Amino acid sequence: MTIIDTLKNLVHSSPKLELDDIQATILFKRPDPYYGTHVLLKIIDAAGGRALLSRLAPHVRSAADARINTTAWIAVALSHAGLVALDIPEDSLASFPAAFRAGMAARADRLQDFGASAPANWEAPYGSGDVHVTISIFAPDEASWKHALATAQNEFKDIDGVTLLGMHDFGAQPDSLNPFGYRDNISNPAIDGGIEDLLPGQGDAIKAGELILGYPGESGVPMAMPQPEALGRNGTFVVIRKYQADAAAFNRFLRDNADDEAGQELLAAKLVGRWRSGAPLTLAPEKDDPALGADPKRNNDFTYKDDQAGLQAPHGCHMRRMNPRDSKLAVLTDVNIHRIIRRSTTFGAPWRADLLEDDGQERGLFFIGISAKAPETVEFMQAEWVDHGNFMDLGKERDPILGQQDEDSTFTIQKRPVRQRIHGIQTFCTVRGGEYLFMPSLTALRWLAGEGRETA
């Protein structure tokens, strides 16, 4: 082997990830089915905040632990306001990226959060600056969920200087369906050096540094990370956005634009890019295939190489916008640097096919995106892929599921000899709140709790 070959192998070899220091939810996929709770906390004084993190840290699961133990896990993240409340050094605060420091509400223009989705209309306490710490519990069954939640509550309920702002349960059983009745969270990037086997259709593994701080990214070098290294390394950023889903409006739209139930299901699949079972249109273009949709070794094993015209999965469908794969884009884009780990969670009443009017029950989705530059990535995706169509030569068309639609918005279905353009698509998901968060490593949790640095 030549020196050049050796150097090439070093460049392309997978990094050895420090699994015992990385929070489980970064590398460990959400259970299926799943139960859980998001907890929102405010730090009143720094001493209370440090005590909170010190007590929570032993319960936060690492990726190494989750690899061998599949019970519930607890994840912890902090906002910029939370880091300020902990009195961490000014130079450390300044080392965080600008979007994270500003917070989601201040970036509404970049996220296209206007009208009903504007921060002024968000549910409290989102966007107020009061959400300092989030605790998320993910569990495969009800018993382990309740046990993990009780464990977390025992650690924060009696701490002076910490206030509980709210708790929101989530989960989807038995088929992990989202508020519109679709199997969700099928496609996630494979991580170079990660803990899960590469599944068919994932493509080449994304360099770890795109998703976790401290490792080389697609450019070959690590991204800038918060300082000191004990704070930044093995951490990442999280975007959480709470969406209210209007399932009744979605059902009415299908009814009004298709002749029968089969036509409605096909139209629904064209909007998303998959049938409700999870079967992709590129592999099942004519009718649903539930066995395909339920098979993780087949349901993501496709490209758009043979569907560049969009005759199977429309160019503007939700799935193709979120991950264009090998689509020929009108705007040159490196898709790999815009990938994001999704840990989204459904909440509220299950979807019903017969729901045509608001039944007063809550339904929605917490979009949870994780990467080493999650705020910037989500802002790009919202501005360029969700709320614009130019990257696929679709003009002003917006994502049919997440897009905030203008009056008489359209959705185009590519057909031969003539395309079909459907008018009057509505806004089916409205933003009700969100935050930019930093998910520290286990080492950084202890550092933030005061270990290894001066405390006030």
From TrEMBL:
Its cofactor is heme b. Keywords: Iron, Metal-binding, Oxidoreductase, Peroxidase. GO terms for cellular component: cytosol. NCBIfam families: Dyp_perox_fam. Residues 285-301 have a biased composition (Basic and acidic residues). This is Peroxidase. Residues 282-301 are annotated as: Disordered. InterPro entries: Dimeric_a/b-barrel (IPR011008), DyP_N (IPR049509), Dyp_peroxidase (IPR006314). GO terms for molecular function: heme binding; metal ion binding; peroxidase activity. Residues 59-157 form the DyP dimeric alpha+beta barrel domain. It holds the Pfam family DyP_N. The keyword Oxidoreductase applies. The keyword Lipid biosynthesis does not apply.
